[in-house]
Design brief:
Blueprint lengths: L7 H9 L5 H19 L2 E4 L1 H16 L11 E5 L26 H8 L3 E6 L33 H8 L5 E6 L5 H7 L2 E3 L20 E6 L2 H11 L29 E5 L9 H16 L3 E5 L4 H19 L16
Parallel strand pairs: 2-3, 2-4, 7-8
Antiparallel strand pairs: 1-3, 4-6, 5-6
Helix pairs in contact: 2-3, 5-6
């Protein structure tokens, strides 16, 4: 496992101040990937040549004195259900093994505009259906902390890649926990934004009314900065929320005083593991010690939530995956 964890904001600042070159950073990323990926099996497609070319361009901009954004030059991993022009987008399925995306997803456009550098498309459960990244059609990804364990899923490649130091940041997608669960398994921060905050244009759909692109990082500062980059209204996504786009990074004042956390009582009852309840309570104790407020909430619809999910998600998946019929997308069976 790599010990080279670099704060994305500090890394970008070092590049802007010319303490290190972007080319050196990106070269180091691929050295780490080449060293660790054979055992972890995180990447499906590496973009080394393109990434180094972009790094060279950024170094020239820095040398010319051009003002760059707070995440410029930062490498980032992309879950392989997010389209990126000219690169394979397989959704970890052999149905799409030969599919090359003809356009950039909106989030990819935002990353490029911010000067960030995608370095690899990473593994996932096929079509985002799974919770262990064992259901990839190509190979299972391993947990960097223990190769005998899974990294969670379906965004297991994104979580494992950040945990192993392949990149400081990653994008994943979350329908029913596919960012939050692997982040927990791999000991990194995972965030599913509020639905509509981040455009879904260019995300291969699983369950459209639940899918949302989100972020992986090591710290809240990095996650907030990346969320600032990828958020915003997009008229190409009919579910995109046309509302004010605040700065999440500026909201991190360092003070927790008066900030409320809702604690669903239905999740703290006898059906939960005592170990899990104890861990959650310890976290809540830390929160209150920092001046935060914990407020019990009934969440009365909780008992119906899972059943509702298992009606909506498979129904929407059936409609969305019907396009992979060998006519418009996907492999067509050879004639025999």
């Amino acid at each position: 496992m790599s010990s080279h964890f670099q704060d994305a904001l500090q890394l970008s600042e070092d590049i802007r101040l010319q303490k290190k070159t972007c080319v050196t950073v990106i070269t180091g990323v691929f050295e780490t990937i080449e060293r660790l990926d054979p055992s972890l099996q995180v990447t499906l497609y590496k973009m080394k040549e393109e990434a180094i070319q972009t790094a060279m361009q950024l170094d020239r901009l820095v040398q010319s004195g051009q003002n760059l954004g707070p995440l410029a030059g930062v490498p980032i991993l992309i879950k392989d259900n997010i389209c990126m022009d000219g690169t394979p987008t397989t959704c970890a399925s052999k149905l799409l093994e030969r599919f090359v995306a003809p356009y950039d997803a909106t989030v990819i456009q935002h990353l490029k505009s911010a000067g960030m550098i995608p370095v690899a498309k990473v593994n996932m459960d096929e079509f985002a259906m799974g919770s262990s990244t064992e259901n990839s059609a190509f190979f299972p990804t391993k947990n960097p902390w223990d190769l005998s364990r899974v990294p969670g899923g379906s965004s297991g490649g994104s979580a494992a890649g950040v945990a192993a130091g392949f990149a400081s940041l990653a994008l994943g997608s979350d329908t029913g926990g596919s960012i939050r669960q692997p982040a927990s398994f791999c000991g990194v921060l995972g965030l599913k934004p509020t639905y509509g905050r981040v455009s879904r244009y260019g995300l291969v759909a699983y369950a459209s009314s639940l899918d949302q692109i989100g972020v992986f990082s090591h710290t809240a500062r990095e996650a907030a900065a990346l969320l600032d980059v990828i958020s915003g209204y997009d008229n190409r996504d009919s579910t995109s929320a046309n509302i004010e786009h605040p700065s999440f990074f500026k909201a991190l004042t360092g003070s927790m005083t008066g900030i409320r956390i809702g604690v669903p009582q239905a999740l703290m009852g006898p059906t939960m593991s005592e170990e899990v309840v104890g861990a959650v309570q310890k976290a809540l104790d830390v929160w209150t010690s920092l001046g935060g407020v914990c407020e019990p909430i009934p969440l009365s619809l909780f008992e119906s939530a899972l059943a509702t999910y298992y009606i909506l998600a498979p129904a929407e998946a059936s409609a969305n995956l019907a396009r992979f019929d060998g006519v418009r997308y996907g492999l067509r069976a050879d004639k025999t």
